[in-house]
Every structure is written in structure tokens, then in C-alpha cells.
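Many introductory courses stop at the sequence. We go one step further.
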Amino acid sequence: MKSCWPCRVETMAFNFSLQSILHFRHSVEHQQELRLRAANQKVGRAQHGIEQIDLRRAVLLAEQTRQLGAGVSAAELRFGLQCEAELLRQRRDLELQLVRLQQLRDQQREIFQQARRTRETLEAVRDQQLCTYKQEAARREQRHLDDLFLLRREYLRRS
């Protein structure tokens, strides 16, 4: 909260009329943040899946190279090629899924950022109203002290 000089006066009975809406906006922001984290986790899992497929392909290719050097039957060679083709198909599927998940994550990030901006706007309104309230309270207190001073001075003058 930004402070200004008169805002140093204690808060007595400040009541922010939009407090329930601010609380709701905090809740919405939190929900959107959780959704964004879940979207980030899904993207991470898809990326990890692609990395795992790449590792399996590397192991498969190393095994095929070793087998070719040792002599391999045509059936084993064909099986290895089919395994690699299946891994490539799975990788393409995961890449498509990754692109879709990244788009969903980016949309969720926008939703979260909008929820945050809305909450921050309401907080700024609350902070401004609180500062105004404190300024008014300080003015009332000063008027009260001035009145007391004038009353005392008048009392002393008459005595």
C-alpha cells in the first residue's frame, strides 16, 4: 500500500464497501493461478515424454547398430525399424499435443494476468479510499484539537 503523510493516522472504523468483491477477486486469481500451474505441469509432462521417446530412439539405434555389426536377421531388422517408426509416430503425436497444451497454457496465462490486474485495481481503489479516510480522520482530529485549544484559551481569558 502506498502511504502519504496524513495516512499515518490510525485506522479507526474504515469499511471498504467493495471488500467482499475484493475477497472474491483474490479467490478468482488464486483459482486461475492454480489452473496456470496445472497447465504448466501438463506442458512439462509432454516435453518430458518427448525427451523419453528421444532417449528410447537413441537406445534403439545404438542396439540396431550393434546388432548390424554382429549380424542380424531380416525379421529382427524389420522389427527394429517398426519400433523406430512407432516411436516417431508417438513423438509426432506428443509434439502436436505439446503445441496444443502450450496454446492452452498461454490462454490460461492471459486469464490469470487479467484476474491479477482486476484484483490489483480493486486494491488500488481500496488503498486510495483508506488514505482518503485517514486524511479526513486527521482533519477531524485536528479540528477537534483546534476547538479544544480555542475553548481553553477562551476559558483562560475569562478566568
